[in-house]
Amino acid sequence: MPIRNRAERHDDDASIARIDGADRRNPLFGLITVDTENAMSDRKFEYGDRVRHATRPEWGIGLVVKTELLSTNGQQAQRLAVRFPNDGLKTISTAHAELELVIEDAVASVADGEVNPLGGWDKMKDSEWLGAVAQRKVREVMVGLSERVRDPFRPVEERLRACLDLFRFDRTGRSLVEWAVAQSGLDDPLSRFTRHELEVLFDEWATNRQQHLQQLFSQAPSDPQLVNRLLAGAPPAAQASVRRLNAGR
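The chain above was modelled as a monomer; its predicted structure follows.
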């Protein structure tokens, strides 16, 4: 599959894809990337496209199985039927949902129609000197926060809301696996990690999540209405965290 609107550069710390003039970390080490240049209703998806739901990455990489044109408030959009490996068939309007087109890199491992974003680094993990690099990159991806909460060009309130939404994940039961799917892009993270490894990585990620939330909260204006807007619909764990931070202001 050709790679569009993408030029690559590599440094010692990470493989980064440049899309639409912005540096974006690939879901796993430059082996797959997403095209956000034509996000939302501006992009026309086709049958067979692989997509990721930006706000529900734990659903996994979905396959578009049906497309229809529709008009919403005078704007052209699409109604898509997308089959997600971890949540089944979904009907999605591109006028409301933020979908990302998954673009496969030539070095990605593809088997049985599924993208294996760990493929290249798996081959390096046993190398005496590349093994440490591969392990470090795995950790970077698993404990990192998404661009939705880090992008300084997004309004602070929008980043806060996205950060609070991450509190839907915890380290128990199915939620831990869903978090690992969202972080890694793997449909079955337990095929690559033990549960204990995921718990350790989650704890570090959760610390990063809390620290970033505190940082964003310090940048936001002291406004009771803002706090009320943020609390509306936020996960219970996020509400508790916001109340603690607000009490300390």
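Confidence is low (pLDDT under 50) at residues 1-41, 105-120.
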